[in-house]
Amino acid sequence: NAGVMQNPRHLVRRRGQEARLRCSPMKGHSHVYWYRQLPEEGLKFMVYLQKENIIDESGMPKERFSAEFPKEGPSILRIQQVVRGDSAAYFCASSPSRDTQYFGPGTRLTVL
Amino acid sequence: GQQLNQSPQSMFIQEGEDVSMNCTSSSIFNTWLWYKQDPGEGPVLLIALYKAGELTSNGRLTAQFGITRKDSFLNISASIPSDVGIYFCAGLNYGGSQGNLIFGKGTKLSVKP
Fold first, then answer.
1. pLDDT tens-digit profile of A20-36?
2. Is the dihedral of CA A106, A107, A110, B2 positive or negative?
3. What gap in Å lies between CA A47 and CA A56, rounded to an integer?
């Protein structure tokens, strides 16, 4: 059973561009979570989705950030008009229910 | 919001020694999870604890869910060089729209051969 897949692993963007991060959950998992990690810090929750629905987006900035988990295909975290402060590692996790979460390898976003 | 205090922040130990780290919170959790993260990788689940007082082992790792539901500890026995990494505790409450993990800031473990 393949683990959580994320791509790209590394993403470089210039200020003002858009960043799209993709996450494919483990087979059979319908709950997806996105977290952000700054250097030397723990992970901070951003958004929780279940197929086609956003359940909790309390950790996601209201401007420029959006997330979706369509019926078919991966979950997408989109950051519009990126700024230097968006540089971080973004992790996706999945779970079969609201329980133990399994993490992907992350996408390291660098904004120049 | 909820916060986890994880200690120690870092540890330098000799190969073969035992390690102990813990997490405390001002609020209760339904589930405690322990993860290990290597540089450039995502957190890997080590142990999951679902019931207050539960003591669970995974090889050389042992973790306990505190009876008050506000704390947890992780022990590593007979450490080896590949134990090097950052260990995170995480608490989970699920109810209503909740389901997100609250993470500690991590314990960085260094092992001298």
1. 999 999 998 999 999 99
2. negative
3. 6
